[in-house]
Amino acid sequence: MTGIRSLVAYLWERVLRYAVKFGVVGLIGFAIDVGLFNLLRLGVFGSDHFFQGAIGAKIVSTSVAIVFNWVGNRYWTFRAHRRPDVVREFLEYVVVSIGGLLIGLLCLWVSHHLLGFTSLLADNIAANVVGLALGTVFRFLLYRFWVWGHHRTPGQELDEHEIEERVVAATLADAPLEDVVEEIDKEQADR
Length: 191
What we know:
Belongs to the GtrA family. By secondary structure, this protein is mainly α. It has one domain. It is built from six helices and no strands. Helix 2 (54-77) packs antiparallel against helix 3, helix 3 (86-114) runs antiparallel to helix 4 and helix 5 (160-172) packs antiparallel against helix 6. The longest helix has 40 residues, at 2-41. The chain starts with a helix and ends with a helix.
């Protein structure tokens, strides 16, 4: 039982804590994205322009949500891994976000233009359910392990290989993983 708790503690510290925070920021960003998308599609900001169409509305709504999410993720979710080169970090974030946007747009395009599902409900399902789910997995993995990965924060984290060696050694020695996690955290705090 101690081994399972140790594994859960290790996973919480390395991935799950970030996933929960990422989810909270993402839910707020999702509300911004879906709300703005629907306001544009319904013509609240005027009609007969590119941004009232499905693709234009999605580009605008996702772009606004991307900026909000960057601020939330930089200053809350991954704050311990912020880099001093803010411009480069933001550009990498935007590249990953555009990848997520393209995944959502592809889902919307296939549904709206290829399959002919043109209702507002079909557009929302394609863009804000299927596309968003696939794009979210893509973005989380690249944000966590590339944009704000441990290797990108000089001097703050132990080498991933070193951490894996310690976890394997503790497992083979039947030592509690909590002790290993505490030791790693202490060393990282001292750096």
